[in-house]
């Protein structure tokens, strides 16, 4: 996985990588995410987790646990197509998302993708 390509999908991602604020990718499963959440200390803005080969339901697991993660002001965003999970601060993501909504960044998003944005903003 090329980190520059991955983080360049977000206008703020490349800066975080250059500033040393991206951890990973690390291979893991649900226990890995829970471990990273419990020890979160804002040393990194994002932690990239590659689901281990046997963790097939990681996408649903992340969505099902959003409310729990939100109690820590964190979110685990699964990317099913590219097979990774981004763990990051929910409040910061929402703040950045609001800025991006003022641009054309989301213009090609599907209805489902918009529903994810709206759900995490609540």
Give a concise summary:
By secondary structure, the chain is of the alpha+beta class. It has helices at 3-7, 13-18, 30-38, 58-64, 66-70, 90-101, 111-120, and strands at residues 22-28, 46-51, 74-79, 84-89.
What kind of sheet is the major sheet?
Answer: 4 strands, mixed
Helical content stands at 40-55%
Gross geometry: globular
The figure for the number of domains is 1
Strand content: 15-25%
N-to-C SSE string, H for helix and E for strand: HHEHEHHEEHH
Q: Unreliable segments (pLDDT under 50, ≥5 consecutive)?
A: none
Describe the protein.
The chain is an alpha+beta fold and 122 residues long. It has one domain. Helices cover 44% and strands 20% of the residues. It contains 7 helices and 4 strands. The chain has a 4-stranded mixed sheet. It is globular and about 35 Å long. The relative contact order is 0.13.
